[in-house]
Amino acid sequence: MQVFEAFLSCGSICTDTRSIVPGSVFFALKGVSFNGNTFALQALEAGAAFAVVDENVGDDERLIKVSDVLTALQGCALDYRRHLNIPTIGLTGSNGKTTTKELFLAVLKTKYKVHATKGNFNNHIGVPLTILSAPKETEMLIVEMGANHQKEIGQLASIAEPTLGYITNYGKAHLEGFGGVEGIIKGKSELYDYIAQNAEGVALVNADDAVQLEKSASCRRTTFGKTNAQFTYTVEEKDEFAGIQFSIATASYTIQSNLSGSFNCTNLAAAVALGRYFDVPAPAIVQALTDYLPAMNRVEWRKTASNQVLLDAYNANPTSMSLSIENFAKWHKDGWLVLGDMFELGEESAAEHRAIVKLVQRINMEERCILVGKHFGRTSWRGKQFPTTGDLKTYWRENGAPKDAAILLKGSRGIALEQLLPLL
Predict the structure, then answer these.
(1) pTM assigned to the model
(2) Residue 100 needs a FRET pair 20 to 30 A away by CA distance; which of 66, 267, 330, 367 works?
(3) What is the 3-state secondary structure (H, E, C) of 169-226?
């Protein structure tokens, strides 16, 4: 039996014998410290209908031998994507991918049966898993694509075959893998390259970004921006939460969101433009974006017993870190900054961490800022600094944590600043 044939007969897959779905297809993936082939027979015993392997593990007729399991998984996902034959949104970018994906989902699901990437399943394994987990009645797919080096986005686009592509921005993320900012622009723009080669494809483009306009020039486009775009909007700045205004025909609309930071206005505008492109009624778009609540440690306000904490500790790079600090300081000058190291910056790491220190000094928040991590420890910072989150936890247990304050927790995933919440 062929892999895709087996998948269609089962309707679900699994890759972990600890959570076997009865009647599913088990893909025996390999990793640095594991080999799924050694668990294939165990998966069948646990209820899997078939097991896809690339090593000789037995004679069971339910074993499907392939040359490479990962390639088979990706090929099966491509076959299913074509089988579904539905509009597919592919999105990538340096900052705001997951937030934008969730905004797109909130808008589109008011009209369509939508399946979207869960969590951060956005790499060469996560994208196939996202596609293969889509119910057969799905009317639209949203596929988030992550990358830390060139050619990754091109590969993921060839699996997901997006009919609409969106790049949130080009920022200083994964500098080490991409080889600098120009490498980031080239790598992320592989999505535009794919769209340009597809006669039916269209790019959703932020017309306020000159680089994006240049890189998408060969694509069919639908644009949004503050001026000179098919969909225009204005920023509504009442408080620290992102808000926009726009008009459609003779009607005017305002969205006041729960997303902290004016930088999220672009994400809101992209979601509105996408909704209009797919004919979602404006009132439904406004309601969906107004009601959306951030989660997953991304720009998420948490009220604790003693403080108001802005938890943005899922990831960090120089672009997102600077924007978060500046926005927080604008509205909470008497608050606290707790900033963790930024990872995967390569040769630029020292300079980028020094730049964040200078930013904190420039906005006069040195006395209300705590830095965490070895990279920050190598700067000229003279304020409170701790090698790890655990060290800061110990210090707060012994000396007390801030109280009755607004506190920003911003750092890369590996620093795990969310562990500080119980002490705040």
Answers:
(1) 0.90
(2) 330
(3) CCCCCCHHHHCCHHHHHHHHCHHHHHHHHCCCCEEEEECCCHHHHHHCCCCCEEEEEC
